[in-house]
Amino acid sequence: xxxxxxxxxxxxxxxxxxxxxxxxxxxxxxxxxxxxxxxxxxxxxxxxxxxxxxxxxxxxxxxxxxxxxxxxxxxxxxxxxxxxxxxxxxxxxxxxxxxxxxxxxxxxxxxxxxxxxxxxxxxxxxxxxxxxxxxxxxxxxxxxxxxxxxxxxxxxxxxxxxxxxxxxxxxxxxxxxxxxxxxxxxxxxxxxxxxxxxxxxxxxxxxxxxxxxxxxxxxxxxxxxxxxxxxxxxxxxxxxxxxxx
Length: 245
Description:
The chain is an alpha/beta fold and 245 residues long. The protein has one domain: Alpha-Beta Complex (2-enoyl-CoA Hydratase, Chain A, domain 1). Helices cover 44% and strands 18% of the residues. Strands 1, 2, 3, 4, 5, 6, 7 and 8 form an 8-stranded mixed β-sheet that branches. β4 (89-98), α4 (100-105) and β5 form a beta-alpha-beta unit. α2 (47-56) packs parallel to α3. The longest helix is centred in the middle third of the chain and has 26 residues, at 132-157. The radius of gyration is 17 Å and the shape is globular. The protein starts with a helix and ends with a helix. The relative contact order is 0.14.
């Protein structure tokens, strides 16, 4: 049975995150911006909102604090691009950094990860509708998205593309030490551990430690209801991107 994992991830977490970009402690030298939600304008933080807040920060150093279950690949790519253009942005992984949140983190100039946090990479998901030709075109788009992510991870880690591809295909969850050993993060910090409160049921290989705290999140989960307007918007975007390749 085909799982609509992307919609499940958004729906499962729609009542958990703050749905707003928070910026604190802005000074001439430093500022902190929080990505404590799913990524995407369906039920999380949109790229438009995040980039607007990021662009308004004029501090010399920006601290990006991350606790996110992941989300929309296109929104995440837009956020990652804005971070690279901004300059000195330091990522601090406070809890879960999964899926699309990982290449936002690795787009930063430095990445540090709290002891007890988790970092997860996997192959891209999307939504699609149509005939066999449409499905083949969508599969081709996903392969290009995966190749782009693999390329970024190779630059960050120094690993071969085949190794990164295998890790993504296996939905690889890493502890802070494992992420450091693999080159995804630059150092580990002793911060206050953030207990997972995300519903990560959409993923296959969630570690037992990460599952602690999921009960409250799952209790908030309602049956998946598809928002037709947003669904059609996403299909239109996929079609537009496909036509450019």
